[in-house]
Target: TRP C-terminal domain-containing protein
Amino acid sequence: QLDKTQALSEQLGIVLMIAVFILYPGWAHGVFSVFACYHIDDGASGPFPERQRATWGWGYWIRDMNAQCYAGTHLSLYLPIGVVAFHLFCLAPPLVFYALLWCKRKQLSTLSTIQRFGFLFTRYRPKYFWWESVLMLQELSLVAVEVFGRALADVSQQILLMLAAFILISINMSCSPIKSHLITLLEFLSMAVLSLTLTLSLYFVVGEELDPGLVVRLAAMLSEVHVLQGLPLEEV
Model:
């Protein structure tokens, strides 16, 4: 019925919106990597601090470790591109989708609106019709933690990811915007498995080298958790 009721341009617009959802995490990752820097030497610690050369205070660009962050070409070329790309590819999509649904908020129950934009709001409760934009911002925050966390120690990065996952779980479970209890449960389990994976992986980066037997048991435990998450659930 969509071919009969919607013009080709409108159908292509729907395809474009769906493509934005698919590409959004990759866009965010690429944009944030423009601002991500890594500190190599501090000029004070280590056995030979006087021989350290990579001591630039702002660190070095992750995409080109020969380039100093916020200086030279990075400051004059890549940083302005990153600022524009952040507004265009990171902030604009969720804001545009929110504005689109807000303008249509009184026609959300009509057939034409459901056919065009139903994938944005039909799975949410009526008062949370805009929640898809919130999910995109949550996705953006996780990507930001993953990209900028590379400059931190392994443990600090994983703890930061765990904290972000816990905050998102708390927000989603407190609001419970999704109509289907099953989908809510699946989203909760997905974030819980992510947190558990990060927690167990701390064994591999903290302390001394692990016993091979313990490594096998931890790997088996992680595999079992992911398999259990994929088992079919019944609607409650």
Q: What stands out?
A: The beta strands are 37-38, 60-61. The two ends are 32 Å apart (CA to CA).
